[in-house]
Amino acid sequence: MVLIAPLGFLGDYQLFRLTLIATYALALLGLNLVMGFGGQISLGHGAFYASGAYTTAILMTSAGVPYWATLPCAGAAGAALGFLVGWPALRLRGHYLALITLALATAIPQALKCKALEPWTGGVQGVIIDKPGAPFGLPLSPDGWLYLLALAITAVAFTLVANLLRGRIGRAIVAVRDHTLAAEAMGVHVARLKTRTFALSAALTALAGSLGALETEFVSPDSFTVFLSITLFVGSVVGGVASIGGAVAGAVFIVMVPPLANSVSRAAPGAVYGVILIACLYLMPSGIAGLLRRAAASSWWRKRKRGGEHVA
After folding, report:
1. Is pLDDT at 311 greater than 50 in this prediction?
2. Which of these, 117, 108, 67, 68, lies nearest to 84 by C-alpha position?
3. What global pTM score does this model have?
4. How many Å apart are CA 52 and CA 206, to the nearest integer?
5. What are the pLDDT digits (tens) for 218-238?
6. Nearest-CA neighbor of 243 among 294, 197, 288, 183?
7. Which DSSP category does 72 fall into?
8. Closest CA to 35 of 78, 97, 109
9. Which of 56, 85, 95, 120 has its CA 20 to 30 A from that of 38?
């Protein structure tokens, strides 16, 4: 109810920003799955975000597919691309994998400008799509409906990933991150697990890209440059890479901090953003989620200590 309450008193622009937070939280959930829990470095998740956005845009404009039907297609396209990239790339480690994914993020925007693909991708001009309205005659604006849709999809994704990480597969993912040789000795097929984890991560990020395209009503190659991948990487680190909740904190940072930096200094917003980022990394080395965990643990310990003193 707390998350639905903004519909009653926020305007479309505020709902637009909340939808972007939910969308980026979903994208960062995918990135955290690979980086924080899988122990792999990816600088190319902007490419998977683009794949989901373009899948939705092309299906809606060229094939007349309803927007809701493009969402699973976008996730499937991202998973396929992630599997194709992950199968050879995840046999590499550390900075080699980072360079491979960075190359992907650099190549995808250029590929989208290709003349052969221009009838579908729109080339450098991009593709304009219509923002869907609320179904069943619901008294909601398009931004209000997309906010609820993004919120519901993100909540389901977070629940599924949390359950996955608590199960056998999640323990295997973390075991591979902590000690690959030991996990392999225990019977874990490391290459297969890494590839499937990477594909799932890409699917989540592509699904986020699909929602982002519906919200912004426009996709173009210049919207998915390598800077998007770096932005997602920054959000993951600031929020907390080895945390599901860190994806939400990182999304809030991505959406809220750049406008804040611009309001502080219109002449040099990048410098202000850099100072805020350095301060966050210095003060919260384990991310916002790590800081909140430590604060909660400290509060719990103080309450327990007071309770013990009271009993004594």
Report:
1. no
2. 108
3. 0.92
4. 4
5. 999 999 999 999 999 999 999
6. 288
7. H
8. 97
9. 56
Rounded to whole angstroms, the Cα distance separating 108 from 224 reads 8
pLDDT of residue 308: 56
CATH, range 5-311: 1.10.3470
CB atoms within 10 A of CB 195: 21
Using alpha carbons, select from 120, 122, 144 the residue that is nearest to residue 132. Answer: 144
- What ranges make up the beta strands (E) of the chain? 127-128, 218-219
Q: What residue spans define the domains of the chain?
A: 5-311
Amino acid occupying residue 261: A
Question: In this structure, are residues 245 and 165 in contact, taking their beta carbons and an 8 Å threshold?
Answer: no
Token pair of 268, please?
A: 């040099």
Which residue has 């009653």 as its token pair?
Answer: 8
Element (H, E) at 114: none
Q: How far apart are CA 27 and CA 21, in angstroms?
A: 10
Helices in 217-286 by DSSP H: which ranges? 226-239, 245-264, 269-283
b/e burial code for range 167-179 (CB count within 10 A of at least 16 → b)? eebbebbbbbbee
DSSP element (H, E) containing 14: helix 12-32
